[in-house]
Amino acid sequence: QVHVVESGGGLVQAGGSLRLSCQASGRTFSTLTTGWFRQTPGKEREFVSAISWPAGKTYYADSLKGRFTISRDDAENTVYLQMNSLKPEDTAVYYCAADDAPFVNAFSYRAYDYWGQGTQVTVSS
């Protein structure tokens, strides 16, 4: 059983930065596909970014490329999402997700079996 926990959300002004962290227990991130998704009320969970397994490729939503960066620290078994130049439309609950099957569709929230509880990111204008 894999357990993931996010942290690092908060309130930031537009143009600011936040770094979200996702820690796992039960398995190392180097053997998991790990994704970040976000959700606002009334909308479907939206893909943000992912690191695939076993290839280790990184993926981003087109609209977020250049502002968000996903990374992984294997020594700390932590995946990060660095978010820069934040905009009010980035306001959402951000979720970390993981899956232990290889070659899953990293873009689809349906591919992930393990989810964190979410962390709120609020960007004020």
Explain what the structure shows.
The chain has strands at residues 3-7, 10-13, 18-25, 33-39, 46-51, 58-60, 68-73, 78-83, 92-99, 114-115, 119-124. It has 125 residues and is mainly β. The strands form 2 sheets. Strands 2, 4, 5, 6, 9, 10 and 11 form a 7-stranded mixed sheet that branches. A 4-stranded antiparallel sheet has the order 1-3-8-7, with no helix packed on it. Strand 4 and strand 5 form a beta hairpin.
Entry summary:
This protein is 0% helix and 49% strand. It has 125 residues and is mostly beta strands.
Proportion of beta-strand residues: over 45%
Question: What separation lies between the terminal Cα atoms?
Answer: 40 Å
Output the helix-strand order. Answer: EEEEEEEEEEE
Estimate the global geometry from the Cα principal axes: globular
Give the helix tally: 0
Q: Measured on Cα atoms, how large is the radius of gyration? A: 13 Å
Q: Tell me about the biggest sheet?
A: 7 strands, mixed
Number of distinct beta strands: 11
Structural class: mainly beta
Runs in which pLDDT lies below 50 for 5 or more consecutive residues are none
**How much is the average pLDDT?**
96
Q: What is the helix fraction of residues, given as a range?
A: under 10%
Which descriptors would you attach to this protein?
125 residues; mainly beta; seven-stranded mixed beta sheet; globular
SSE inventory with pairings:
Elements lengths: L2 E5 L2 E4 L4 E8 L7 E7 L6 E6 L6 E3 L7 E6 L4 E6 L8 E8 L14 E2 L3 E6 L1
Parallel strand pairs: 2-11
Antiparallel strand pairs: 1-3, 3-8, 4-5, 4-9, 5-6, 7-8, 9-10, 9-11
